[in-house]
Design a protein that fits this description.
Radius of gyration of chain A: 20 Å
Strand content of chain A: under 5%
Bound molecules: protoporphyrin IX containing FE
Number of strands of chain B: 20
Strand content of chain B: 35-45%
Radius of gyration of chain B: 40 Å
Largest interface: A-B, 43 and 49 residues
CATH topology of the largest domain in chain B: TATA-Binding Protein
Structural class of chain B: alpha+beta
Strand order of the largest sheet of chain B: 8-7-6-5-4-18-10-9
Shape of chain B: elongated
Number of domains of chain B: 5
Number of helices of chain B: 10
CATH superfamily of the largest domain in chain B: Kinase associated domain 1, KA1
Oligomer: heterodimer
Chain lengths: ~290, ~450
Amino acid sequence: MDSGQLFNLTTVAYFAAMVLFFAYIATKNNKVALVATMTSLVGFLIQTTALGLRWYESYQILGQDGRAPMTNLYESVVFFAWSILLIYLLMDLKYKQRAIGAFVLPIALFSMLWGQMSLNSSIDPLVPALQSNWLTYHVITCFLGYAGFAVAFGVSIMYLIKIGKEEKHQGNEPMGGILGMFPSTKILDDMNYKAIMIGFPLLTLGIVTGAAWAYYAWGTYWSWDPKETWSLIVWFLYAAFLHARFTRGWVGRRAAWLSVIGFAATLFCYLGVNLVLSGLHSYGGG
Amino acid sequence: MAETKKNLTDSIWDFFCSLKLAIILVLLIALTSIIGTILQQNAPAADYIREYGQANYELFKNLQFIDMYHSTWFIGLLALFSVNLICCSIKNFPRVWKFVKEPTLVAGSGIFKSSANRAEFSCKESKQQVAEKISDLLKKEFAKTTLTEKDDKLYLFTQKGIYSRFGAYITHISILIIMAGAVIGNVWGFKAYVNIVEGTSVDQVRSRNGTAPIDLGFTVRCDDFDVSYYPNSNRPKDYNSDLVILENGQEVMRKRIEVNDPLTYKGIKFYQSSYGPAGNAFFKVKATENATGKVMELRADQGKQVPLSSGYSFSVSNFTENDRNFGPAMQLHVSTPDKKRGAPFVVWQNHPQLDTKRGGVFSFTLLGYEQPQFTGLQVAKDPGVNIVWAGCFLIVFGSLTAFFFSHKRIWICLEEEGKKTKVQIAGNTHRNQPGFSLAFDELLQKIEATAKNESPKKEG
Ligand code: HEM
């Protein structure tokens, strides 16, 4: 069994988990929710094994030049999915709001599908600039940060769907139907904030480790290249989110929209900069 | 008159302290930053004119978009942002400092009436006994308590995580520290580059923004440069240069640098960044005069005429490192004593015997060749960098403190009511209300059970 097969298995597990989460919302059966959560956990464990295996394989293929599996677009996309699951499962442990899975797993699944189906997954040796431990620290922290924002995004979408219907909903009895299975808007709003609170310091650390790496490789910790600039834009957007939230009372709908915009900027920083703009970073071109 | 003047300074102060300004500035900086990621920065004028036309180029130039991150308006935004941050911190800090200096030891009745987390019960023992028991319990389960007696009532106060109130300030101050470090680096440091041909030395480098050359104050020599490739591929694995630092002709330091591992001397760092060929290759050639069997070992620079014996000479006119997979090959021709140029022919390094079959006056063997290289170095001096790193450390530390810890306080008031003691409890936190509510309820059960001499109730 090689890591590629394990990643395929992971993709299948995430797909199954997603379908189960949909089924849970439709059937309102708590057992289904438990199975769905377990399936995502199993997928996550398989993926963790696969990441470890790919790391090991890199040593078999490249000898002493083996490296952590986080150095090209394919590996980053897979690692993104892993990070999302990690943050999601941690938040599930605390909140136990199972329906969230239906809005978070599709993001991870999409990542995996894209990686497995259309990106080059060969293990190539690294050009000199990428041979640095800072690269590993940088990628891990950035992607865990992005994952926090991805979970916040999923939760915000749920919030926006639910609040729209809730405001039209009359009377005191709780809402029925599919939306009844969504967590209350108050919890969704709180989770949005919490996920961003996890993502923000991690992104801060990601920017700092990126600066440290640039300093050791090129002699400048900051050179305003598009990738750096976009990570700062994302960081500023979420800083604005935090301040608007606790001082100007931007909670609920406005906070949810800010989170959606923030995640759009995050995705642009991650993918758009390389696929649309040009820069120093290595992921471009696949 | 004095009144309105005061109001004016007040409103200017308020303007600079306001969070509304902060949010607007942060968003404005984020939005305008996008320009420089779309429009190539610091490219030659001709590039902009070709791509966008003369008129647009003039516009970009006037708006300072060509080097926007160093433009007056962008630096101005950053400066305004710093002023905002400083004012806001000055304004709010005393409030936070008060939490430390003057904790509310005696809770007013308002706290017990309106806190989100509160409870009330009575028990039989005297207020002193109850206070002692609860103190012991809280010390074990929460934090040390402070006891105050006032108006015949006993007040207990305890708190945890007060330092988390400082998280936001640490974060803000570290932003200022990082900016200060960046300014110091820009004013007292430099960013430059230099190319050194193998075997030669330099004592000046060129500034990246094109001003006069910078004197290093010492000499750097490159003894050797190497590129290594991954096996069976033309992907470079490493570049490295053997650098030697000389002061007054004396060697003081030597290091083999590579990408991601620079040399530092007197605060100036030399980074391996590029390389390239410097001048023509030269060849070690063995020539045998076929008639006499005389053997000569010669050094030939490409394109230069090299004398052989008996008035003949030759020159290497071309060279390739790999000729149709036969390996390194040179093309040369021999000139006769009367300067007539013979037909060119090829000699392969890996097939030394081949040329004897050509049947010329001389037969040649290529013993080796060397292509001199230059090593391209980025040279940087940044006296502010450690300040930046200190700021980076603090910002991570500060934002973690701000987000993952909260200031939690619990107040208790004990008062005699007939033969009983009335116990009022209230708790508050400045972040993570739901989490605190759970912990508070749990603590409450223990307090009540202890005060009433029961074992804690299970669930409920
Ligand atoms: C991009 C820059 C900034 C970052 C990263 C930042 C970061 C933070 C963080 C992490 C917190 C704590 C958040 C929380 O309690 O949930 C905070 C609080 C705060 N920030 Fe900022 N901040 C920035 C800019 C500013 C500016 C420019 C101002 C003021 C003009 C400001 C004013 C405040 C205030 C008043 C608080 C609340 C302080 C308290 O809880 O006592 N921030 N900031």
